[in-house]
Amino acid sequence: MEELRQELDTINTSIRQSNSVIESFTNETHDLCVEVNGLDHELKELAKKKEEHQEQLDEKKKREEEDREKLGEDIQKKIELEKQSLRIDFEQQSQEELKILVEILRKQDEVLNDLRASYEEVKERSASVNVDDLAAKSLESRLLSLLDGIRSDFSMHAKPLLRRTLQENLSEAAQQRRDIFLKDTEERRTLLSDFVEKQRNEFLDFYKMHHEQYSQQTDLVFGRLKEQMEQKNKQRKSEANAKLEEYRQQILQSSERSY
To answer: In 3-state terms, what secondary structure has residue 188?
Structure first.
């Protein structure tokens, strides 16, 4: 009976220890519970960091949108400035071309004046040799017609040439400025797109790394917990089998003594 009492005390002690372990799990004071709670806290911190990072991404997106709008406004301002610059260049070039045209007309007037002088000289000579008035008037009319034809022909060829030259120069200047604007806009758009893609990849790498770390730690903790529970169950089963065997031997011995 003493042995049975001792065995019962041992069983009660084991039960108390098991209850203590169960209570520690219930109160979350066990080392494994503390570790799991720590991992849960770390997971919450990671979620908080993820939320903060998302807020930062949203803020960056908002700033990028504002930058795009500002970029559009800057481009519009540049276009207006370029229009003014083109207008000024057009006026300056027109003035220069006008000066050239005036100079050409001046030289043409000099030629016409020389022709008039020659005509007057011919007229005087014709008068001195008693040329018929009708012939003189006919010569005068032909000379004036010739002068008008020269002037008309010059104007007819000079004005379209001048207009075409101005249009070509203005068109070429406008195309050059347009190409510069497009290149600058494309470079800024490329830089902005690269920056956004870089931030996105960094966030994905950060989230993936911490998610893998959390998964590994969680698997490790639950693996250790499972291993400990299996060892304890195996130990309890072994102890129970040993005690049953001991009881069986005692019963056999008692039976033998009875006989």
So the answer is: helix
Is the distance from CB of 249 to CB of 13 less than 8 angstroms? Answer: no
- pLDDT digits over 94-133, tens only? 677 677 777 777 777 777 777 677 667 666 665 554 445 5
CA 211 to chain centre: 27
For the whole model, what pTM was predicted? 0.32
In the block, residue with structure tokens 């220890």: 17
Alpha carbon 244 to its chain's center: 76
Question: Could you give the CA distance from residue 30 to residue 18 in angstroms, rounded to a whole number?
Answer: 12
Q: Which long-range contacts (CB under 8 A, 24 or more apart) does 139-146 make?
A: 143/115, 143/119, 146/115
What is the CA angle 164-166-171, rounded to 5? 95
Structure tokens at 63: 């700033």
- Number of separate helices (H) and strands (E) present in the chain: 3, 0
Q: What value, to the nearest 5°, has the Cα angle with vertex 176 and ends 172 and 178?
A: 115
Distances (CA, A) of 203 to 29, 59, 195, 228: 35, 14, 12, 38
Helix (H, G, I), strand (E, B) or coil at 233: helix
Highest mean pLDDT of the ranges 19-33, 37-51, 132-146, 167-181: 37-51
DSSP code string of 32-98? HHHHHHHHHHHHHHHHHHHHHHHHHHHHHHHHHHHHHHHHHHHHHHHHHHHHHHHHHHHHHHHHHHH
Distances (CA, A) of 226 to 15, 166, 230: 20, 89, 6
